[in-house]
What we know:
The chain is α/β, with parallel strands linked by helices and about 375 residues long. The protein has helices at about 5, 10-15, 25-40, 130-150, 165-170, 175, 195-210, 225-235, 250-255, 270-275, 290-300, 305-310, 315-325, 330-345, and strands spanning about 20, 50, 60, 65, 70-75, 90-100, 105-110, 110-115, 115, 155-160, 180, 180, 190, 215-220, 240-245, 260-270, 355-360, 365-370. Helix 2 (about 10-15) packs across helix 7 (about 195-210), helix 7 crosses helix 9 and helix 11 (about 290-300) runs antiparallel to helix 12. Residues about 1-5 have low confidence and may be disordered.
Amino acid sequence: MSSEAKGGRSAQLKHTGLRPGWTTGACATAATTAAYTALLTGDFPDPVTITLPKGQTPSFALAAEELTDGYAMAGIVKDAGDDPDVTHGALVRATVRRLPAGAGVVFKAGPGVGTVTRPGLPLPVGEPAVNPVPRQMMREHVTRIAELHGTSGDVEITVSVDHGEEIARSTWNPRLGILGGLSILGTTGIVVPYSCSAWIDSIRRGVDVARAAGRTHVAGCTGSTSEKTVVAEYGLPEDALLDMGDFAGAVLKYVRRHPVDRLTVCGGFAKLSKLAAGHLDLHSARSQVDKGFLAELARRGGADEMLTAEVAGANTGLAALQLCQAAGVPLGDLVATAARDEALAVLRGAPVTVDVICIDRAGTVVGRSAPA
């Protein structure tokens, strides 16, 4: 059976006809791999091939390289495919230096890469804005190269992006307290392009495929991590998984006209807090996390006046969640329940049972609603 017949995330992407691209994290990993190889061997692999978290092995042409006695630098131009990504065409560089045995892999922010200055992000304050999955990818590739050449793999990796500070002004980084440049992002290494009309059409075809296959339970997922969560929770097959991305409204409106017995909506806490607040498009350019709304939910859940004020002033949705978790206030469940109720309102009485699962960046369930 073809992936078109199976449905699911890969079939949706094929249906759009849009070309996927590579994340800044994948580009930084490729640049690190080339630079570290050159540091050990004197030669830059070009193109350089890496392995992504799901096993894909893309190759990248080098756009820049430099080798001295003390360090090696390689640069990759980011290709975002057909996604309107502000970092498309940016030159991502990695400079690798040896460190003493036992030092491990140390990350530094070079020009154009931001530094975390506020709590509530998946990295501690003071750390370069190189997110956890790209860090893990770079560590794994350094380890493989080190083992191949019989060395320890203790290195300093400085990631930089040409003109990154200027590009970052078009992102939410300054408001989030990531100063000095961009974040190095990505959980799969692949940029899935989102043309609104093409992706919404692919969601509709995904529902059609699931219904034709006799699926009575489908899941709308915001990304690959939430997809893994619902598979672990419910054992759903591939053709019952809808990659809704930011288009929660598209899923709900189509399921309203073409019902299934049960719909699970799963996604990151911050994104689903937007649905809970009444937003049907969850993209950061078109809706934002409403900390005042979260504060009111927390108050209803038992937060005192001081905690309510702290939630209202939190830097991010994650920070608000962490404050409530520490105080024993079930903000995750409250957001999931409010998102479920919003989904039911959009469904307008269609015979569909809905439940909502909120996760953190690692895929841990931080809130859920009862089915209704």
